[in-house]
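Example 4.3 (complexes with small molecules)
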Amino acid sequence: KKGSYDHFMQKEIHEQPHSLTTTMRGRLKDGGVLLGGLKEHLKTIRRCRRVVFIGCGTSYNAALAARTFVEELTGIPVTMEVASDLLDRQGPIYREDTAVFVSQSGETADTLLALDYALENGALCVGITNTVGSTLSRKTHCGVHINAGCEIGVASTKAYTSQIVAMAMMALAIGSDQISTQARRNAIISGLTSLPSCVSEVLKLDAEMKDLASSLIDSESLLVFGRGYNYATALEGALKVKEVALMHSEGMLAGEMKHGPLALVDEILPIIVIATRDACFSKQQSVIQQLLSRKGRLIVMCSKGDASAVCSNGSCRVIEVPGVADCLQPVINIIPLQLLAYHLTVLRGFDVDQPRNLAKSVTTQ
Ligand code: UD1
Ligand code: BG6
Ligand code: NA
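Answer. The structure with 6-O-phosphono-beta-D-glucopyranose bound is encoded below.
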């Protein structure tokens, strides 16, 4: 079943042009979006007081990546909940809320308990899942199957990118009654159409990421700085590295750098800075300057052709990625980090598909 690949994680990373295509199949129609599972509920969702995203692990990170464009395209306030934390706090959930549950397996215990809690509190419950017939799919009022195909590697890869794309389509569908954002929606729809080919292009960085991995093999820690659309990319890239390569790694909000993390910067600690083109680009340029002035060991991810714009003195290692619509850029940007985590794991001699102490689906609390 792995075909020509050595591991399922590797296969699943490389099949993303295909899995994203199946996620979108039959759903981008006549320049608009058609999600059969949400159609009847869009009016209710548009009237809700807020959207609450709920998930664990990579699925939480996918929801975080979606947060900004859901707010932008719908005008509805969005809050984020890690499922276990919502339960610990017994946080407020109301009838006027739309609670969106994100889970690859649809069987994660914490997420399902949070679903029971939200149902009891009367919220409209929406599922975003890869598993038809799962408990999450059955118990939610409505939802979207992401149709990424079975994911076997414990570290989620193709489900993450398909979750983001499914939520982008959801945001487009909810916002489709707004005339003021029509041009923006059209641009995102055309971005979705070109996404699989951009993903094929970014996968060509495989050898470069293997080489980067070999330079990081003995590092004790790796920081990843992102912001805006790519804050989630920083968290998810770091999660991949820690869960499979068993290396300490933290994703951080670049805007928080000077409020603590800057103290860690020296010539040894590798730091990845995500600085692809979007509204936050100039802020990331100044973050890079501040890190360089402290002699930070930088690896900068930037848009094609931007190497000298992000690092004029040539002292950074640069990863150049193809550009897509800014809100879809997280789908592209996570892929080099998935490849990095994969190669780092193989080079360090750890089990790629069954990382120590972890399970694909955590069905106990
Ligand atoms: C559905 C069919 C698909 C068919 C298409 C044709 C299924 C599972 N899907 O896809 O095979 O090609 O019509 O138009 O038969 N749902 C939840 N919670 C979730 C996810 C989904 O309640 O977490 C519900 C949806 O609201 C919907 C149903 O499950 O009622 C199917 O969802 P989905 O597969 O996303 O719908 P379609 O894309 O229309
Ligand atoms: C586990 C997996 O912790 O559950 C992670 O190891 C996953 O990869 C998390 O992100 C959530 O799983 P699910 O199925 O709810 O998306
Ligand atoms: Na359902």
